[in-house]
Amino acid sequence: MIKQRRKLDICLNCRLPLKLEDNFCPQCGQENHDQNVSLFVFLNDFITNYLSFDSSLYRTIPAFLLKPGKITKAFNEGKRRRYLHPIRLYLILSLFYFFAISAVVPPNLFDQLMSAGLWDMTIEDNDRVKMKLDEIPEKDRQELDSMLNIVGSYSLGSLGGKNAQDTLGTVKLKWRDIKMMAQDTDISDSSFYRAMETTDFNFNLPYLGITQQRKFIGNSNLYVSNSARNLPIMMFVLLPFFALLLKILYIRHKKFYVEHLIHSLVLHAFAYLIYGLGISIMAFHFADFGYTIFICFLVVTTYAYISLLNLHGQGWFKTLVKFNILGLVYLNLLIIGVLMELYISLLVF
């Protein structure tokens, strides 16, 4: 795609007069292109130069979908105008994938999981809870009493002389109760911490103080949204590690690291496409979640295996062994990456 330029008759950087055929300033090298335009023109240029497709799109679609490894091989052989650039392919399909996730996953997903009973607990003569209650001073019990009244639960100060632990045996703690406590500015952090100690909710992570825990519990929906926005960055950071694994597995093939990086881009782009379509299908309740994910996984892994066969020309068994090693190591990296992304998002939340 030839870039559309709005040429000037003078270089805005060094003031050298320019000719009509000058795409760049002969003296300073600055591009001969007027950037001072309206927002509409700017967006039009962006779509034209970066998101528009030429005839290469029609060659890319069948090669990308039906011939695993073909685009990577052509690009690494220097045939870089025949198909869409792998980076462009990756960016477009990653946008589609993460847009599908954001459209399908409800913003209150975390609250739904917790309210569905993931961590809800009925306390049945729990020794740990009894010990915690014994340690709470009378003054703090009064504050806990007001907290529990706020959320509509049983209060420690209204037991009518009964044993507190015996009465608490019938209390069922709810996530929404803890969430309301976290949002109540009249409840101090120390009192909230003592209330958390009598529940089964545990967010005690390194460098995560009670203030940050309370902020997370009170605004868990916002945290889920922030974490979802950070996922594309995490996946992009993992790309070089995936390429490094390919480099190590095929170190005797004397290929450059960049060639494996290009292969990684294409494989991830295909995975984004398939999983994005699967998520979109599930959004309209056309298929079961487990069945759809299994089919997507089967398609993506088969595609990746065939692409390794086509690119490196090794036997099916040797390729299968390397493919399993690649998948196992990368799965662990992916799990670590997701956990780190969630943890970092929690720290900076």
TrEMBL record:
Keyword match Transmembrane helix: yes
Keyword terms, alphabetized: Membrane, Transmembrane, Transmembrane helix
Transmembrane segments: 89-110, 231-250, 262-283, 289-311, 323-346
InterPro entries: DUF3667 (IPR022134)
Superkingdom field: Bacteria
Pfam entry (one): DUF3667
Protein name as annotated: DUF3667 domain-containing protein
Species of origin: Litoribacter ruber
